[in-house]
Amino acid sequence: MATILTCAVTGGAPIQNNPAVPITPEQIAAQAIDAAKAGAAVAHIHVRDPKTGRSSMELDLYREVVERIRDSGSDVVINLTTGTGAQFVPGAEDPKVAGPGTEYVTPAIRAQHIATLKPDMCSLDFCTMWFRTRAFINSPAHIAEIARTASEAGVLTEFECFDTGDVNLAKQMMSEGLVSSPGFFQLVMGVNYGFAATTETMLYVRNLLPLGAKWAAFGIGAMAYPMLAQSLLLGGHVRVGLEDNYYLEKGVKAPHNAALVEKAVRIMRSLGHEPATPAEARQILGIARRNI
After folding, report:
1. For residue 291, is pLDDT > 80?
2. Which residues contact 119 (CB under 8 A, 6 or more apart)?
3. One-character DSSP codes across 243-269
4. How far apart are CA 84 and CA 103, in angstroms?
5. pLDDT at position 8
6. Cα gap 14→266, rounded to integer Å
């Protein structure tokens, strides 16, 4: 069976000295389309404020990206994040009061673009953890509400898991009927305080997944391609992109997302895996192409 390759086009973290990271809706859409031409079946998309480059939740920015991709004729599977809006920074004088940099909003706001634009998929974070000086908080109640919004819109949820507890939470919420079962899991390998980017960790986590669950994994930074190969060997799908890694190889920055995808495709084929087309990815994931 073909293997799904996702391209995570831009992400929401601060951009650190790489002009290749797309910022405007036009740039994000163009790189998503080019990544699809290079072999990615899925484009995982955040949006950024065109003036500052910072992560954004603006509906109109998402709308422009999605419309540009759809109007281009590309059939790439569109996967929009719901991760933005879960960030809390404790205040210096009173830690229970939100400090500068906090962006913590209701699930309805975090998922408004899903309900309105109805992409093929959306990512749903199950983690509550620290990223440097900020906490990323996803309560079970908020996860359930975002999942319900996606389900009502006919959108498949991708379960992003950063550590073992996230997988266990997803399984519990499945058993309670709060999220879909058996799920499509995306395992994030190599983030500080989360899954280690090692063979042993990926094998362990794969064996924790519910019976019949489809899954993918990716590595951060220098572990992007080692974890891609490891996921293939363990039966998973894969992901690359400028959200996760800036480099084609040590010291060589990728000029765009398509270059990262092209390298991923070479590795996949060298290991006997053919990248899925968007149509094949929809079949694997059980989603239909939207006539919008």
Report:
1. no
2. 66, 78, 79, 80, 155
3. TT--EEETTEE-SSHHHHHHHHHHHHH
4. 8
5. 98
6. 29
Please calculate the CA angle 243-249-253 and round it to the nearest 5 degrees: 55
Beta bridge partners of 48: 55
Tokens of 193: 């305080």
Q: At what angle do helices 25-38 and 257-270 cross, to 10 degrees?
A: 20
Predicted TM-score of the model (pTM): 0.96
Cβ(63)–Cβ(43) under 8 Å? no
CA-closest candidate to residue 79, choices 43, 38, 111, 31: 43
Is residue 74 within 8 Å of residue 33, measured between CB atoms?
Answer: yes
Q: Which structure tokens are listed for 99?
A: 């400090």
Cα–Cα distance measured from residue 243 to residue 8, given in angstroms and rounded to the nearest whole number: 5
Domain boundaries 5-285, corresponding CATH code: 3.20.20.70
Chain centroid to CA 33: how far? 17
Q: CA dist 131 to 120, 143, 277, Å?
A: 28, 19, 34
Provide the pLDDT confidence category of residue 292 given band limits of 50, 70 and 90. low
Taking only Cα atoms into account, the Rg of the chain, rounded to an integer number of angstroms, comes to: 18
Tokens of 168: 């266990």
């408004």: which residue's tokens? 112
